[in-house]
Amino acid sequence: MIGLDISSSSVKLVELDMDERGQYTLLRAAMEPLEKGSVVDGNIEKLDDVVEAVRKVVRKSGTKAKQVAMALPPSAVITKKIVLPGELREEEIEVQVESEANQYIPFAIDEVALDFSVLGPSATSPGDQEVLIAASRREKVDDRRGVAEAAGLKPVVMDIEAFASRLAAQRLIERLPRAGLDLLVALFEVGATSTSLQVLRNGESLYDRDQAFGGAQLTQMIARTYGFSLEEAEAKKRAADLPDDYATQVLAPYMDSLTQEIARALQFFYRATPFGRVDYILLAGGSSALPGLAEKITATASVACMVINPFEGMAVAESVREKKLRSQAPSYLTCCGLAMRRFLQ
């Protein structure tokens, strides 16, 4: 099974293998840009363009796999933890979940794709169990399923983007001091149109927040400063074909703004929770690898900040172009988490 991540700016594919010792190998990774407006706020607006991008990324990767794990944006999914008696069997839980879901979902139950996962014993209610409910409008699920099927793939997992990125990040958090135990880690994903924050501890998300600031702002600044169209600015940004004063006139002010957005998001977290600081900041997403950004955030937030590579510590197949992958790796966090679902089924 491959992971397939459809974002507002690109389609990404990852295929992993695992040996008997639990060590991962990256078999394939590929990315195909999407035209602006193909996916807006997580909604697929130009179906044919997205299907064609999926076909291209599959061809580019060379994979023969047909089964695929995909994900919905958190904004398209309602999640709720509930507590149920510990002795319930799975079919009994299913009946209870449908009953509970009616209280939280503002749509008719037959318009909804609904699933649940038993998390384990309740920490606050002895003898009971915690169950996570996830629900989305069926049309949102069908849109992504339709893209996969039109491209000749078979969707078998529909995850939530934030859950997939958390799964991939947790493997890296376990490489931190004390194997990550009890550390508060702020995971920022800087996407094309927004930056998301999850604060994680021991594999659980304690807090999440989205801010409308991402790589698109850098493209707009390039276009404004040099008189390019947005399409020209995006192409020149990707090709690193920009005037000599770009670093001082455009990139430095953008990095200042992004750093302030990240510092502001942390302040919101501190005000909304009992916590006064985090132990680490991890950066992922397309704009996270800008030279000097992690150091600037470390200085501003007074917290160690690092750009993460979701493939760190993995063996890499000969077919993967490692040099190109290194610069793009932070963009693959969610997709890597989706590919890891192959081994959790």
TrEMBL record:
Pfam families: PilM_2 (PF11104). NCBIfam families: pilM (TIGR01175). SUPFAM superfamilies: Actin-like ATPase domain. It comes from the Bacteria. InterPro entries: ATPase_NBD, FtsA/MreB, PilM, SHS2_FtsA. Residues 1-169 form the SHS2 domain. PANTHER family: CELL DIVISION PROTEIN FTSA-RELATED, ETHANOLAMINE UTILIZATION PROTEIN EUTJ. GO terms for biological process: cell division. SMART domains: FtsA. This is Type IV pilus assembly protein PilM.
